[in-house]
Amino acid sequence: MKLIGCDVGGTFTDLVLVETEAGTTVIHKVPTTPHDPSEGVLAGMTGLCALAGVAPGEVDHVLHGTTTATNAVLEHDGAVAGLITNSGFRDILHIGRHQRPQHYSIRQEVPWQDRPLVKRRFRKTVGGRIAPPGVELEPLDEAAVAQAARELRDAGVAAIAICFLFSYLDPRHELRARAIVEAECPGLFVTHSAGVSPQFREFERFTTTAMNAFIGPKVGDYVARLEARLAENGFSADLHVMGSNGGAATARMVAELPVATLLSGPAAGIIGGAWAAALSGRRDLITFDVGGTSADIGIVRDGAFAEATARDTAIAGFPVLVPMIDIHTIGAGGGSIAHVDAGGAFRVGPRSAGAVPGPAAYGRGGTRPTVTDANVALGRLDPENFLGGAMSLDIAAARDVVSGLAGDLGLGLEDTADGILRVVNANMANLVRSRTVQKGLDPRSFSLVAFGGGGPLQAVDVAAMLGIPEVIVPPAPGITSAMGLAATDMKYDLVRSVFATSAEPDPARLEGLLSEMQGELTDRLEADGFDEDAMTFERAGDLRYVGQGYELRCAFPASLDADGLAAVFDDFTEQHRREYGRINPGAAIEIVNVRVRGVGAMPVLERPAPPPGGSLAEALVRTAHVAFRVAGAVTRLPTPVYRREALPLDTEIPGPALIVQKDTTSMLRPGDSLVADQGGNLLIRVAQEG
């Protein structure tokens, strides 16, 4: 079976073609086309097939990681959206919870107020009310719904969100309103909250649905355009898109629920990083994905990645109630621009040179110093072996832009370039601390899996700052996210709010609801072509002490009875002790949500054959003079440059050294060492600071 994984980044589009039976892979990398990412995807896929000698029609599956939804939110470049809600609740999207992102700042931005997903003039209210536990207090005013739909259509909205109170208990008003709106406004994107996130917390549920409307037309157009272009160029395989939950979904599902793809690319990266590290027997990991515009980190413990909780799921400051891997991002990548801010502080990022014009070293007109330019100025990127020699670097342009910043700072060129890297590495290390040390985890007990185009170049410095002893560089780090796409399964999630307490346990009711949800997921997977033998289901619930504001996720057994429910409550108690350091013996425990995940097993990505290896003499490209910070001073040292594919296996190689390959460069400082192992990874022992 032949799979293509394609991940669109801010600067490059990364692709991999895997033949599962033969265990062979072919990688490819092309510039991203920001004006229309589907152009770069198509160019990359056709080029990849040509490299592999595979006809487009021979490809069985296409799995795609996209930033279309994410960029629309980050750039606030979505559709003009409308909202229909209950009378008296027009301003839920504006009021929120009276919680400010920064409690004591008087000049902060409140995203849902400063850049609303739905402007107030496009929010309409209608009569009708459902109340707990699903009782109709007032019938839906269908005429008002039709009138609101016409007014929004005539005002030029491209999408309409329907959000009613307590629809997670009974969606009948939302379903009827959706039918009316679709009849009045054919061609518009219409979504409703019970179909997006049937959970309690109306502000978060309304905001998630509004975001689905805000990004829906753009994502739907992109997916449709990409499908059409692939078909026109001979690709007959179905298109699957990575979701934020770490699983792939059909293009049809993504078009209906685009909000589920907000972390599409980063989610694939964590899966790819975990898959690669497992080849070397490593299961406790910090994944470190550095691209052109951002750095993403995720935590993997005992081979399993964490899922974000309701209090942590936010994109660009907007709360989002959809299942997603716990991923955290900062604007720190190869294209991040170094500058002096209005207060005179030296900063790197979050602004990025992106794909166009990109860093000055790319020769596309970039005029601002970036992290890539700093690496070039210090000799850490080989100008003749960048992208396997497919792209040359303009050393003079990189030195010129760094020299300009050096003049502003009153420093030398090399000290300025070193300062750029120290600042960006410190920003990345602080991000890792926020997800480890601040959560009670010791980063020194993890391995750092470095990938993306920039990860292996920055990883040893970041690891040394954190005391992490080992860096793992996957076989193809620049396309690890694309490898993650090829290593994932189809996944669908359902969630329902239930409100059941340990004081009045009712396992039969919960089991009935869980079985109903599992049946719905079975139907979805069967529609995707999976038989029962290829399906697995995972059950879980969100629990808290009665009166608490947030929950902890606990696994449920495959069949829930009284004993199984008691075990779930015991699990919650232990999780609460670990998370908060205390428990509340005798207090009632409440199940607020139940969850079921359906997984359709895709073809297994086999362990790749180990590289043939060679000798250091065969691997040596040349000796460069690379700048490192030694004893507090930036010093140029003779540094061997090796071809990765020719490195001898299971042989310790001392630093300093640069390891070049088509999709990235890995760096060892003086004192570091590496071993190329049988799993295809580079295992770097990191010399610790001090």
Explain the layout of strands and helices.
Blueprint: E1 2-8, E2 12-19, E3 24-31, H1 37-52, E4 61-65, H2 68-74, E5 81-86, H3 92-95, H4 111-114, E6 123-126, E7 129-131, E8 135-138, H5 142-154, E9 159-163, H6 172-184, E10 189-192, H7 193-196, H8 202-232, E11 238-242, E12 248-250, H9 251-256, H10 264-278, E13 285-290, E14 295-301, E15 304-305, E16 314-315, E17 318-319, E18 327-330, E19 336-340, E20 346-352, H11 371-377, H12 395-409, H13 413-435, E21 447-451, H14 455-466, E22 470-473, H15 480-486, E23 490-501, H16 507-527, E24 535-545, E25 552-556, H17 562-580, E26 589-600, H18 616-619, E27 620-630, E28 633-643, E29 652-654, E30 657-661, E31 664-668, E32 673-676, E33 682-685
Helix pairs in contact: 1-8, 2-8, 5-6, 10-15, 11-12, 11-13, 12-13, 13-14
Task: Compute the separation of the termini in Å.
Answer: 51 Å
Record field, number of beta strands: 33
Structural class: alpha+beta
What share of the residues does DSSP label as strand, in percent?
25-35%
Query: What does the average pLDDT come to?
Result: 91
What is the CATH architecture descriptor of the domain at 76-220? 3-Layer(aba) Sandwich
Reading off the top of the CATH hierarchy, the class of the domain at 76-220 is best stated as Alpha Beta
Uncertain segments of ≥5 residues (pLDDT<50)? none
From the spread of the alpha carbons, the general shape counts as: globular
Roughly how many Å is the radius of gyration? 26 Å
Number of helices: 18
- Could you tell me the CATH topology label of the domain at 76-220: Rossmann fold
| Helix content, binned percent | 25-40%
Largest sheet: 9 strands, mixed
InterPro entries: ACX-like_C, ATPase_NBD, Hydant_A_N, Hydantoinase_A, Oxoprolinase-like
Domain Acetophenone carboxylase-like C-terminal: 512-678
Pfam families: Hydant_A_C, Hydant_A_N, Hydantoinase_A
Protein name: N-methylhydantoinase A
